[in-house]
Amino acid sequence: MKEKKQLSRFGFFAMTASLFITVYEYPTFADSGKTLIFFLLLCGLFWFLPVALSSAELATIEGYQEGGIFSWVGEPLGEKFGFTAIFFQWFQVTVGFVTMIYFIIGTVSDVLNIPVLNNNVAVKFVSVIAIFWLLTLLQFKGTKITEQVAKYGFSIGIVVPVLIMLVLAIKYIASGNPISTNFTNSHFLPDKSNIAALVSFVLAYMGVEASAPHITDLDDPKKNYPKIMFILVIVGVVLSTIGGSVVSMVLHGNISANKGVVEAFQVLVSPGKNSPLVIILGFLVSFGVMAQVSSWIVSPTEGLQFVASKGLLPKRYAQTNDYEVPVPILMVQGIVVTVWAAILTLGSGSSGGNVSFQTAISLTVVIYLSAYILFFIAYLVVVFKKKELKRDYQIPGGQVVKVLVSGVGLLVSIAAIITAFIIPDSMSKSEGQTYITTLIFSYIVTLVAPLIFYQFYSKKNKLKGEKHHENG
């Protein structure tokens, strides 16, 4: 008999935090200078908080607890849209894995001074898939290992480096070192030159709901889940603001998307060279991102396993090993990530790492935001049409507050999708062309894929299973 899994409050907190608190985004934030503070507050209050509150309510409704976003969207809007939403949630992370691992490779190549790791596309591609498959194999022993990796990864790979960064930055500025014009020449409010950055800041908070399928493993979820969500909002805003601001203040000139964090540590600790402390901090930050990859490998798969048990995916994808890990889903996920790694790494060719990194980030966000648009619409349907449903947590303040909260989240989601298709000022004309072409093509394919799959496979397979059940 499989024993009941149990997640401690801190284990669940660390797992959820490592799903969305992203060190690898600091250089991208830093490009916006002081505006990063505005964007982080805007997205924290008007996007992240609505997602956290709405998912806390949906996750405690009777009949909505299994399958995560599949049930939250599928119950109010219909199975086809539930299937589409969970496909987007899962599929975006198959792109996101590549983004996260680019950061790990950029950091390691920098601290160990092995430029070929980051500059040679073939070596980079092999490195991405080697890291990903290794982390995937580690998941086969179940949530316990993921929880441990998440705990240590969040504590020593995110919190510790950010606090060290803050202390070093205070010392650096107090010693009379100049603050970079990246920070001083910018404004708190965005203008047309950096409005396109909104999409990256939404990514800073994405994924908070992906741990919801594990809510049943949490001790006293009715009380603890909403409480953990609130603490996460505060921690997320604070850590991202410190990290992004420090990188912006100490780095002069262009900021490298996948090496900026290590370069900031170099300036703060040992300008021009890699001291042992810089190397240690580089490895700690890489470990933090690896913990994030580990949490993401397993989080959306529980929802997909639930979808498979409903007959919407081939039955073998509902199977798990002795540790309740859906191995067949993890294998397919690994193959998809390998394909994305090839497209994004080899496809960027001579355009270099920054374009493939930026394309991967934007694609991750627009796919995920498509799921959030369905999520907020589903929540509004619940608010207006399903008031009678029993739930253990509700957004306080009645219907008006619920509509306001989810409506703001929906508007920010739509605005962020639009800004993703604005070519960043930092790209040359040819880089911009590569970026926008890859982004539009990949996004269109992703939008239609789940609808076609549902129409021609899921619906028929489910009906076949129901008939078989009736005849049996």
Description:
With 472 residues, this protein is mostly helical. Helices cover 72% and strands 0% of the residues. The protein contains 17 helices and no strands. Helix 1 (9-20) crosses helix 8, helix 7 (121-138) packs across helix 13 (276-309) and helix 15 (353-385) runs antiparallel to helix 16. The longest helix has 43 residues, at 429-471. It is globular. It starts with 8 loop residues before the first helix and ends with a helix.
| Total beta strand runs | 0
Largest sheet data: none
What is the global morphology?
globular
Number of helices: 17
- Give the uncertain stretches in residue-range form: none
Average predicted local confidence, pLDDT: 84
End-to-end distance, in Å?
Answer: 27 Å
- Structural class estimated from helices and strands: mainly alpha
Cα-atom radius of gyration: 22 Å
Task: Give a quick summary of the entry.
It is built from 17 helices and no strands. The protein is mainly α and 472 residues long. The longest helix is centred in the last third of the chain and has 43 residues.
